[in-house]
Amino acid sequence: MLPDGDGIVILEKIRRTQAKCRVVITTGVSDPQRLQKLTPLSPDLVLMKPIDLQTLVRFLDAPSVQ
Fold first, then answer.
1. Half-sphere exposure (CA, 13 Å, Cβ side) for 62?
2. Mean pLDDT value of segment 25-43
3. How many domains does the chain fold into?
4. CA nearest neighbour of 45 among 64, 31, 32
5. E strands in 1-66
6. In which element (H, E) is residue 55 found?
7. Cβ-based neighbours of 27, under 8 Å, separated by 6 or more
């Protein structure tokens, strides 16, 4: 729920640009139907709020595979 669209809209824009970047989604939404919309967009990590910081740090420390 961002001012210029939600995370799904932003991730769609990122994927259209074919940018070579990792994407982490943080969400407080627990609606399974809404979360399913993320699957075809292939986020690298989806974290439910409250965020598990250890998981995020491990992800950020891991080498990027592209």
1. 12
2. 92
3. 1
4. 64
5. 24-27, 45-48
6. helix 53-61
7. 7, 35, 46, 47, 48, 49
The residue ranking higher by pLDDT, 52 or 4, is 52
CA–CA separation, 24 vs 22, rounded Å?
7
Quick one: tokens of 42? 């292939």
Place of tokens 């001012």: 3
Range of the domain at 41: 7-61
Asked whether residue 44 is domain-assigned, the answer is yes
Is residue 29 included in any domain, yes or no?
yes
Query: Residue 65: helix, strand or coil by DSSP?
Result: coil
One-letter amino acid identity for 45? L
Number of neighbouring beta carbons within 10 Å of residue 46: 14
pTM surpassing 0.85? no
Question: In this structure, is residue 66 part of a structural domain?
Answer: no
35, two tokens: 């979360």
40 located within any domain:
yes
